[in-house]
Structures are given as structure tokens and as C-alpha cells.
């Protein structure tokens, strides 16, 4: 596995706890969350696409391929991962990295460590360990073999919605990062979270 592996940024959600709209376009200082995610991701991977639903023109300034869910009714991040798998397979790639658009501080060694921890199926998920030693999984950050895409398509059609639930059926590896001084997978769901992210960025 090398730095040419493609990646998909998951931005297909409805952001209901933020009052709707695109979390990816919220700002921390002079940058959007999407700017920050791209700055962290691009040095680690090959081509990058964005999973987003609705009018793609609102992301036109980023010059990214925009991948809408291929499964109806916005079933969640798994549909975005499937869109990324299908796109990556079309590029001839054997796997794709997924990251969440609302998580601006994810690790700069994400791709390398996921690749190093890939399980027997080639799948790996990210996790973090807090100061008390408790480990939390962050399955929207993963390495997904494109060979699993037909299985994922079938699972979505059968009603599977949990990213971790699908992943656990395929014996994933796990890469664990320290959550000190803050969890690098801290994500922005509410206005209070956005203020905390601004404080982290400033500090």
C-alpha cells in the first residue's frame, strides 16, 4: 500500500444538529472544514473525491469529483463509502480511504497506519484511546477494499446502516491513536462542537 491510494471525504449527511446545510463548509478561522480536511488528507493519498448529495455546484470551487449516494433515501455514511468504493474501483484501485468532512484534526499518518493494520480482508478502521485507556472506534475513518463493494451494496439494500456493523463482519484490523490532549477524531455535530474546534485550532 502506498500514498497513491484514493480517498473519499464523506459529506453526505443532513447536519440536522447544526440546523441543516453543509458542515463541510463551516469555517474555522479563514478555512472551511473541507479546506482543513483536504490539507491533511492530500499529502497522504492519491486522488480525492467528495461524497455529497444535492446540487454539486456548491462545491465547484474545490475541483473534486462529487459522488452522490447510489442508494436512495440517504441511508448514511455506508452509502458514501460505497460510492467511494465504486469510484475507486473505476480508477483501478484495490482500496479506498474514507474520512469524515466534519473531523478537522484527524492524524497526519492516518493512511499509513490503516494500511499497516489491515485485517485479513484488507479492511482497517481507526480508533482512539483516552487517558483512562478506553478505546473508541471511529469507523467512518477506514481502509475499504473495493472487492467488498458488492457485499456492501447488498447489505445496504437489506437495511444495514451501521458502518461498524458492516465492517465487523469482515474481520477488520484496527489502528489506534492517542486521544491526549484531545481526540484527533473529534467531530463537529453541534454549534458547541464548532466553538470547541475553533478553540483547539487557535490553541
How do the helices and strands line up, and which of them pair or pack?
Blueprint: E1 7-10, E2 27-28, E3 31-32, H1 33-41, E4 48-51, E5 66-67, H2 77-90, E6 95-100, H3 110-116, E7 124-129, E8 135-145, H4 149-157, H5 163-168, E9 173-178, H6 191-202
Notable characteristics:
9 strands, about 200 residues, Spore Coat Polysaccharide Biosynthesis Protein SpsA, Chain A, magnesium, alpha/beta, metal-binding, molybdenum cofactor biosynthesis, about 30% helix
* Major sheet details: 7 strands, mixed
Question: Which consecutive residue ranges, at least 5 long each, have pLDDT under 50?
Answer: none
Q: What's the total number of strands?
A: 9
Return the CATH topology. Answer: Spore Coat Polysaccharide Biosynthesis Protein SpsA, Chain A
How many angstroms separate the termini? 34 Å
CATH architecture term: Alpha-Beta Complex
Large-scale geometry: globular
* Total number of domains: 1
CATH superfamily label: Spore Coat Polysaccharide Biosynthesis Protein SpsA, Chain A
Query: Under the CATH scheme, which class?
Result: Alpha Beta
For the largest beta sheet, what order do the strands appear in spatially? 5-4-1-6-8-7-9
Helix amount = 25-40%
The radius of gyration computed from the alpha-carbon positions, rounded to a whole number of angstroms, is 16 Å
As a percent range, the share of strand residues is: 15-25%
The overall pLDDT average reads 93
Alpha plus pi helix count = 6
Order of helices and strands: EEEHEEHEHEEHHEH
Summing up helix and strand content along with how strands pair, one would put the structural category as alpha/beta
